[in-house]
Specification:
The structure is a single chain. This protein is α/β, with parallel strands linked by helices. The chain has a single domain, classed as Rossmann fold (3-Layer(aba) Sandwich), CATH 3.40.50.150. It contains eleven helices and seven strands. It has a seven-stranded mixed sheet with strand order 3-2-1-4-5-7-6, with helices on both faces. Helix 8 packs across helix 11. The two termini are about 30 Å apart. Bound molecules: S-adenosylmethionine (SAM). S-adenosylmethionine (SAM) binds next to helix 1, helix 5 and strand 2.
Length: about 280
């Protein structure tokens, strides 16, 4: 693991979306952790924007069908992976750089009986521990912003996809250049390593060998979602701190508020991209 990736993993170690906090909330709301189904976790375990609808869009873009082997790059607590397995009938392999999240994912998968269908692995997106041409599709959500070398990760995803398979993912992008100070703030406070513009992302995908299927600017949709997410983080962080579970504190919340403002002003934003590995 590179040093920068270690910093990212440490940043996620006290993230308020954690397995201990999901279990605390689930138990408080249900009264027990008996007979938990994947659907019971959905309100708590999706660490990306636009919840289950975002999963459905990516699943449709990669044309997931029952029995497919899907790679989730930066799978976190495997919230999306559980949805793909339960709702689309696929088997999912997830890679993530955070030990807490890989261990938490295994615990949550076992809780809902999906431990044989979802395989969370501790690994870097820049060095995928798989043979060539293994997967029928790949997805990722709001994660490439953390990866020190996005081109390397794109090349790895391309390598492990079988010909004809697709990679569909969402990520943060930069619409107008941020100052060096702002970029340093993004790096130190939300572990964002670098941002491409949408045209840069398309060029990198094409250079990697992908045929572009679509590139959708989702900045306008994210503006509202992120304002609500900031409120969620404010409540969640305080709640997690009270419960003695991992929490982040004020600096993170202030930086997140700046990010939301930058999205609403269209300085930064989001994109959903889909590329296909040619036959
Ligand atoms: C915003 S979360 C998304 C988690 C999950 N995809 C979801 O939607 O619930 C980003 C995840 O990327 C992981 N990550 C960051 N850099 C990584 C890298 N270089 N390799 C693998 N995983 C990484 C983090 O540990 C974190 O779990």
């Amino acid at each position: 693991m590179e040093k920068t990736e270690q910093t990212v993993a440490e940043w996620y170690a006290n993230h308020p979306i954690s397995a201990p906090h999901i279990l605390t909330k689930l138990k408080a709301n249900r009264g027990s952790l008996d007979d938990v189904a994947p659907v019971d976790l959905y309100p708590y375990d999706q660490d990306h924007y636009d919840g289950l609808e975002a999963n459905a869009r990516l699943a449709n873009n990669v044309r997931m069908k029952p029995g497919d082997g899907i790679l989730d790059v930066c799978s976190g607590l495997c919230g999306p992976a559980r949805w793909y397995a339960a709702e689309r009938g696929v088997d999912v392999t997830g890679v993530d750089i955070s030990t807490n999240r890989v261990d938490g994912a295994k615990e949550l998968n076992a809780l809902v009986g999906l431990q044989d269908r979802i395989h969370p692995i501790l690994a870097s997106a820049m060095a995928l521990p798989f043979d060539n041409a293994q997967f029928d599709g790949a997805v990722s959500q709001e994660s490439f912003l953390h990866i020190p070398d996005k081109s390397k990760a794109l090349a790895e995803v391309f390598r492990v996809l079988r010909p004809g398979a697709r990679f569909s993912f969402t990520d943060w992008v930069m619409h107008t250049p941020l100052s060096d100070d702002e970029l340093a703030q993004y790096r130190s406070q939300i572990a964002c390593q670098s941002l491409f513009s949408i045209p840069e992302y398309e060029s990198h995908l094409k250079e990697t060998g992908f045929a572009m299927i679509n590139a959708q600017d989702v900045t306008h949709v994210w503006g509202d979602i992120l304002a609500k997410r900031l409120q969620m983080y404010q409540a969640l962080d305080a709640e997690a701190e009270r419960a003695g579970n991992p929490s982040k504190g004020d600096d993170f919340l202030k930086m997140y508020a700046k990010f939301v403002n930058d999205v609403q002003k269209r300085r930064v934003g989001g994109v959903r991209l889909t590329g296909e590995k040619p036959d």
